[in-house]
Design a protein that fits this description.
There is one protein chain. This protein has helices at residues 3-20, 25-32, 36-43, 51-60, 65-71, 75-83, 137-147, and strands at 101-107, 110-115, 121-124, 130-134. The chain is of the alpha+beta class. The chain folds into two domains: 3-71, Orthogonal Bundle (434 Repressor (Amino-terminal Domain)), CATH 1.10.260; 101-147. The two termini are 28 Å apart.
Length: 148
């Protein structure tokens, strides 16, 4: 999934998320920090929320069943992977991928895993710290080879 695809998917679910939480357009616009007019236009498909607004919506409504059904159980990690694409960061330790991950490759003391819902990949070290996340397996494999 790309940022653009995520933005499009979240835009298509905007009104459903608002109604799922029982919010009026006035309240939702305040929560997202946008005008009511912008919200109405977005709900009607005349305008698209931007990347920042989508990130805010997915963070604020992280427990939304609508978003989970559309994006997968752990969509916050997917949003993070998209946001950090092409940026080198030091990640904290993970839980090792016991639930939503399948192992793709093990090499040199590292593991490449793929999220079973979103399809994105990550590289973990022996302490379960994420070194890189990407939707492109080759990017993760190249990173692994550079570590060697």
């Amino acid at each position: 999934m790309t940022k653009e695809e995520l933005v499009s998917e979240v835009n298509s679910k905007l009104k459903l998320v608002r109604t799922e939480y029982g919010l009026t357009q006035d309240k939702m616009s305040v929560i997202l920090g946008i005008s009511k007019k912008t919200l109405v236009e977005s709900e009607k498909g005349r305008r698209s929320l931007g990347w920042t607004e989508v990130v805010a919506l997915t963070a604020i409504f992280a427990n939304s069943e609508i978003l989970r059904d559309a994006l997968g159980e752990d969509f916050r990690e997917m949003v993070s992977a998209l946001a950090l694409k092409d940026v080198e960061v030091t990640y904290p330790s993970t839980m090792g991928g016991k639930v939503w991950w399948r192992e793709v490759k093990k090499a040199y003391g590292y593991r490449i895993q793929q999220n079973v819902i979103s399809g994105h990949y990550r590289l973990l070290d022996d302490a379960d710290r994420r070194l890189i996340s990407s939707f492109n397996l080759k990017d993760v494999e190249d990173y692994l080879e550079d570590l060697r």
